[in-house]
Each structure stands twice: as C-alpha cells, then as structure tokens.
C-alpha cells in the first residue's frame, strides 16, 4: 500500500515539474519582439560552472565536490601514451628473431657502412620486439663505431652494457681503445683513453696483448708517445709476447710527432733488430711514411741518438758475437781472475772504439736501416731537411729493397707509392722507380699514378703531369675522381679548366668542391679575376657547399688584391692601373653577390668557417641517403683496387731532366710509348 502511494506522489511531482518548465519556456519574450528561446533542460557537456572551485568547496548550499566541472588536459601525458602503446601493441611470436639473426642484421648494416641503421637494430627494433640485447650485439656495434671514429657513441654503448649488467670482455676494451685512436678529436680521444685505462685498473683487469696493442695505438695516434713507450715496457715486465704488430703501432706513434718522429722511428727500428723481431711489409711502409712526414728535431740530440744506435749495434754486432782480437798490450794484463775480468772489459772497449771509428769514416752512402748502420760520407746532419735527404740516411731506395729482401718482406704497390713520395722530384728518379716496378713485376693501381701526377704538378711540370694519363691508359686503368683532382692543380687558365671539366662530363664524373678549389688556387695564384669569377659561378650553379680551403683561398686572394689596390692608389700613373681597377671592382661586386647567395655576406673568416665546417659525426646520426645499394656479392666487399702490369709502358722513352732543360720539343706520346 505504501509503495502505491509513493508512486502516485512521484508521478504528480514529475507532471507538475514538466508543466512549470513549459510555462517558463513560452513566457520568455520581451516587448521588443524577441523570439521565444527555449531553455535547455540540461547543461552542455563541456560547459563550465559559474562558480569557482573555492566557492564550490566552501558553499553551504553545495554538497560534495562533484559539481565543479574540470576540463581534461589538451596534451596527453607522454608516459601514459607509452604505457598504453606497450600494453596494446604486443609483438607477435613470429616477429621476434634469434640472437644470431639480430647479429646478422647488425653485421650487414656495418659492412655497407650504415652506422645509423645498425644502431637502430638494438635501440629501436629489439626494443619494439621486447628482446634484451646481449653483449655480443653491443660488441659488434662498438667495433663498428670504432672503425669509423665514432668514439662518443662507442662509449655510450659501453655504458649501456654496464647498465644492462652485461659482461665486458677484452674485445670490448680493444674496440674502445681503437675508437679513441681513430677519433677525429685527438684531445677527446686521449681523455677517453685515460678514463678507460683507469677503469681497467680499478676493476683489476689485466690487459692481454691485443689490449696493449690497442692502447699503444690509441696513445700513439693521440700524440702521447711517452705513454705508448711505457706500455711496451709494461709488456716486457709482464713477459707478454711482443711481436711485429706492437712495433708497427709504435711506428704509427712516431708518425704523429712531426718534429721528432724520424728520430724516434730510428730508435724503434733498431730496437726491433736487437730483439731479433723481423719487420714486415707494413713496417717498411710505416717507416717510409715517417721519412715523408717527420723531421729529425734538434741536431745535438739527434747526433747523440745516432751515436747510441751505432754503439749498440757494434756492441751487439747485429745479434752476433764479437770476434776476439789479439792485442799484445792486453796479453800482458793476464795475471789473475780479476785481471781477466778487466781484460775482457778493455778488450770490448777497444773493439767498440775501433769499429765505431771505421763506421764513422766509412766511405759511401749512409745506412741507418740495416742491423749494422753507418753514416758513410755524411758531413753534417744540418743538411738533412727534405724527405729525399732522410731517405738517403737509410741508404736510398735500393737499400730499402735490399733490406726488405733480407727480412723476407715482399714490397707491394703501396710500398712503391710511399717511395714515390720521398724520392727526389726528378725525371731520373721517377724513371728508376718505374724500372724497379717492371723488374719486380708489380701491378700498379690508380693511386700510384695519382701521386705521380701530383708530384709533377707540385714542381710546376704540368705537361709532364698530363703525360701520366697516357701511362694510365697503357696500364689498362681508368682515372678516378682523385685523378681529376690532381690534374686540376695544373689548370693555369680558364681554357685548361674548361677542358678538364669537359673531360669529366664525358666520363660521367661529377665535379666536387675539392676539384674546383684546386682550380681556384691556380686562378688566385695567377691573379686572374675572370678565372676566379667563373669558378664561383660554377659553385653557385652546381649548388656545391664551399669548404675551408676554398674560403681560405678567397680570403688570401682578397688580401693580395687589397694590397695591390693600395699600391696603385699611391702611384696613380703606374702602368696597368685602370685595367686592374676595372677588373677588381667587377670581381668585388660578383663576390658580394656570391657571398649573399651562400649566406656568408658580412661574416668574418672564422664565422664563415664555422658555418661551412661539418661535424664529422653528423653523418652517423641520420639514415643513409637513398640510392645506395647493398653489396649483393660478399666477396666484392673486400675487393682490392684494380691493378694491372705496366709492362706496356716504355720506361726508356722517358726523357731525363737534362734533355728537357735544353729546350727540346716535348712530344706527349714520347713519354709513354708502348713497348712492343
């Protein structure tokens, strides 16, 4: 009965409420003729309340806190999105790969020099597949970054290994030190190498031979020669095996010291002889590179070093026992056991002094390369200034080949190319070296001929440099981009530059800023405004980015022109003033327009260099550009450069310097006449 009464009362209340709402909606009119506007029965879904949160909380007429309406945030929380994505996008079982398959993906990217894609396998793909990487994956990536000098990323991966509680192996340390050695920033590489070495000491890790070799390489290339030599002493103290590779890394360290490197290399070389370690082909190539790039240092210390080398070689006699020499004055001393010890000491001193005197007074070419060195007829070390002089201290190229035969090291074309850089810059020396190539039956590559073109161009023998093209053709080789770059060094006029660019176009070789920079150098040296302007227009048309040498050539050329302009202002009647002023003013207008197009207008040289200078690690932060195709044949990845014999090149047809100096007509085909 009570439920019936309640339902009746509820129906009456609802009907009265509806009647009141209808009356209120129809009575909302004004005397000005406004239309009847019905009132919404419910608030809009996102309409805000008219009272504030504070009023709602403290008002006695409001109950609870549900009445204030709070808007949802416009930007969702990033963590919530990640969590939602993680819960919804569960990878399928077939999507996950094995440890070996992920490693194969990394190896494939690294072999094709796709560093970013290799890193994404661990940082993106495995994270999406919800697979935890192992230390093998990290070691592959660290080794790949180390080979290209990406030391920052290599150490970041090393830190991730420790965060994942993965085991750090000896190979990991070797790769990290290699990253320090190849880093483009020597200071950063040295700092990281010191930190890594401290970590190894704190953990009590004992380095092996590979670790020591990598440390010697890192410290040597970063310029810390003292530490590199100390590491070798540690290897000796720990009785670790010291082989040819260790001394090769020491020779690399010597190359990094341009002022004293050759002196250090001599000490390293004869230390190898005393330890009876035979140098290999790579050792000789490094020594020749040291001959090319390094100096002797101060003469007094160098003289002491050479005397030390001569004395030690005589004392050891090239690893042989010193023969006994009978002396009457010595026989009279033999009286007791103490006298016998004194006799042996004096006898060794007599032998050493006599052989040292013979070595110093030896007639002929010096020889500091063999186990029994001598200075020959060398008068003063102060005369040793150029690479060919330092090669002469080693006995010349013939002695280098003889020493290689004695050590069982066969020369290759790399050895010949290194020798080409240090022999005298004459036709006679080049002819002799080409004859040696034919005698040894070596196969030449394009790099050898590129160095030959550069060597002739640097001594301003541009016609002789062009003749090398016929040698390349006779050797059945094809020019590469470097060939055109060294040929550009000889483009003295606009016509020669246009001819070279036309040759490149016919060979489907695209010009680069290095080739145009070599042409710009010649135009600035000849003070040819039209030549320089044409190069600037080509850079603008081809949309090339100028590099640091290009801008430095323009800056130096601008200073020379300003100096010449002031000289003409001081002497208004000087001959050629009007022509220079006219060309110079036109050049400045076009240079300003070019700078504005390149975004370099009004910038100092340092500011402009900061814009055009590219960070060496930027290339590893972006995926490889489209158009690069992966190498399908694995054997082609390690393919050497194309090499051919030069037996068809008639070396005897090369004219000597005396013949060229007499003003004979130079026939281009005479240089490379084919031998039948």
TrEMBL record:
Q: Where is the composition biased (Basic residues)?
A: 634-646
Q: Which InterPro entries match?
A: PPR_rpt, PROP1-like_PPR_dom, TPR-like_helical_dom_sf
Q: Where is this region: Disordered?
A: 624-676
One Gene Ontology term of the molecular function aspect = tRNA binding
Keyword Repressor carried by entry: no
List compositional bias (Basic and acidic residues) regions by residue number. Answer: 660-676
What positions does the domain PROP1-like PPR occupy?
A: 132-293
Which top-rank group of organisms is this from? Eukaryota
Query: In the UniProt record, which is one GO cellular component term?
Result: mitochondrial matrix
Q: Keywords on this record?
A: Repeat
Which GO terms are recorded in the biological process aspect for this UniProt protein? tRNA 3'-end processing
PROSITE patterns found in the cross-reference section: PPR (PS51375)
UniProt key word Secreted: no
User: NCBIfam families given for it?
Assistant: PPR
Give the protein's recorded name: PROP1-like PPR domain-containing protein
From what organism does this protein derive? Anopheles arabiensis (Mosquito)
